[in-house]
Every structure is written in structure tokens, then in C-alpha cells.
């Protein structure tokens, strides 16, 4: 059963997990979200990866509904930080490979998500 006190305390991690879940759903629903070169970047929105994103998002949301401390918290923080850092780097490489090297909204957005996760990981009182 969901205990509201845990969800209230871990609402940041729940919402960040929901963002990963939504990213996975977006990649499942959108055909070829990332469409131009370099070639290795065009595979980061493949259905297999999108399913993994959905599962990580669900895990983070479910874990946030309980007591989030110790190794469970470390796993949630690692997974969310890894995913958003990975996508920030991939979006940045994607933008730098474009004829005009201007960061797109997705790159800037993921950068701020990474910063937000780092702040919350180090300064939250969820420990």
C-alpha cells in the first residue's frame, strides 16, 4: 500500500521516475524521434531502449512510494542520473553534428534535469 508520508517525502524521485517513464512512452509512440546523423545516436530511441526506460521509470515510481533509503535510494539515484546524463550527452553530440551547432530544447532541458537530480541527490533529506 502506498504510504502518503513516503510519497510526500520522495515526491521528487517519483516525478523524475515519471519523466523517465514518459520519455520511454514517447520513444515507443514516436517513430524515429532522433533522425539525423551520427548513426549511433539514431539508435537511442529504439523500442528496446524505450521499454527499458519505461521499466526504470516504473521502478523509480514504485520505490518512491516506500521508504527510500540505503541501497534502494542509491539505485534509484544512479539509474535516474545515468539515464538523464546519457541522454544529455547524446543530445549534445547530436546537436554538435548538425550543420549549425546550436543546442536544441531537448539538450538544454536534459541538462537542467541532470543538475536538478545532482542537487537533490546531494542535498535532500531523504537519507
From TrEMBL:
Stretches that traverse the bilayer: 12-28, 48-68, 75-94, 100-119
Alphabetical keyword list: Membrane, Transmembrane, Transmembrane helix
Superkingdom assignment: Bacteria
UniProt name for this protein: Uncharacterized protein
